[in-house]
Design brief:
Layout: E1 2-5, H1 11-22, H2 27-38, E2 46-49, H3 52-65, H4 94-106, H5 117-126, H6 128-141, H7 149-161, H8 165-172, H9 181-190, H10 205-213, H11 216-229, H12 231-236, H13 241-244, H14 258-266, H15 286-297, H16 303-326, E3 332-337, E4 345-351, E5 354-360
Antiparallel strand pairs: 1-2, 3-4, 4-5
Length: 361
């Protein structure tokens, strides 16, 4: 545990804090997360941050989102740098931060295997390390109060940045069978719905891209996402609208590697995570809009993870159908069409006490 103080607070920085709290633009929500993460009950008092890594990172989010705070914090690099909040000098070593992160998550019992969102949510709640991070995130993105989209996006950034990549990947790519309502509710909690994702009415995907390109932080993440996941698009067309309109989404290869997944996860704290639509657009704009929708929201890019989900669905079906199979005394044949997103046909063949599974893709 690192103990640090907030002192030598300038009038300007205190004034910024007051403006932030009263601005009504989402800054207050981010500040509330800062106070929770850093245990700042009264500014100027000595405080002990139990989670110094999380504290540092959420303050960096504050400075990135509201640049006026950069004069009050140290931002010499991306990762430490910010224990200077409101007057404290910089001085946390990167190696110490990296080690502390490993120690924190080393205490976590979360597995890294693909599971349903309900299983992932339950494990996170039961895990002390994950629960602590999740509670801060849900406090801002709660559906029980008026949603602040920017505050929720900042909380999502804080939540997913402050965990190992394997854990973030497990949470973001979890899924549910179609009729499992409890699982879908858990998925919405983990994925920031409806606060940071669902806007009524939904914007067009073209508008989402345009808004992103006007925001420096979002534009950088979108550029990285395209270069890591959709190299064919970047190499062939870059930003040439006429060229992009000639592309057919089914012929667009996706790299689907670890860098691509990391870039996709990085998009989650931006407007690119919002649900968007191509309905009600002029016919001439439909192809480009559908291309952007495919790039932003299609899970086809992550085929290996879809295979993991297929196994989850099969296990669920086996659990339900085993009693039926056990009554078959001789060779039997059973066929089920999975009524879910994967759309595969699963054949169950019963031979004595053995079940052979064949998935037709």
């Amino acid at each position: 545990v690192i103990i640090f103080c907030f002192y030598s607070v300038t009038t300007d920085c205190l004034h910024l804090r007051e403006e932030c709290i009263n601005a009504g633009n989402g800054c207050e929500s981010v500040w509330n997360v800062v106070e929770d993460a850093c245990n700042i009950s009264v500014l100027g008092n000595r405080c002990k941050a139990e989670d110094t890594v999380g504290c540092n990172r959420i303050i960096q989010v504050l400075a990135d989102k509201y640049p006026e705070f950069k004069n009050c914090v140290c931002t010499t690099d991306d990762i430490c740098s910010i224990t200077a909040l409101l007057g404290k000098q910089c001085g946390i070593n990167k190696e110490n931060i990296s080690m502390e992160t490993k120690l924190q998550w080393g205490l976590s019992a979360l597995s890294k295997q693909g599971k349903s969102c309900l299983d992932v949510n339950r494990e996170c709640i039961e895990d002390e390390v994950c629960n602590k991070q999740l509670s801060l995130y849900l406090k801002v993105c709660s559906v029980n109060k008026k949603c602040n989209v920017e505050g929720c996006q900042a909380a999502i950034r804080f939540f997913y940045r402050n965990m190992p990549f394997e854990v973030a990947q497990m949470m973001i790519f979890c899924d549910c069978i179609q009729r499992d309502e409890s699982c879908h509710r858990a998925k919405e909690l983990l994925h920031g719905k409806p606060c940071a994702v669902t806007v009524v009415p939904p914007p067009s995907c073209l508008n989402v891209i345009h808004m992103c390109e006007e925001n420096e932080s979002c534009r950088k993440k979108y550029t990285t996402f395209r270069s890591k996941c959709w190299r064919h698009v970047t190499k062939k067309c870059y930003n040439d609208k006429a060229c992009l309109e000639t592309l057919i989404k089914d012929d667009m290869p996706c790299s689907a590697n670890a860098d691509c997944k990391a870039a996709y996860i990085s998009n989650w704290d931006t407007m690119l995570h919002m649900e968007c639509t191509c309905q009600n657009l002029p016919l001439v704009e439909q192809p480009l809009c559908e291309l952007f929708h495919h790039m932003l929201h299609s899970k086809s890019c992550f085929s290996d993870l879809r295979e993991t989900k297929t196994l989850i669905y099969i296990k669920s079906l086996l659990y339900v159908c085993y009693h039926c199979f056990s009554k078959i005394n001789s060779c039997g044949f059973f066929k089920i069409q999975i009524k879910a997103k994967i759309g595969h046909t699963v054949f169950f063949l019963w031979f004595g006490e053995k079940i052979i599974i064949v998935v037709n893709q």
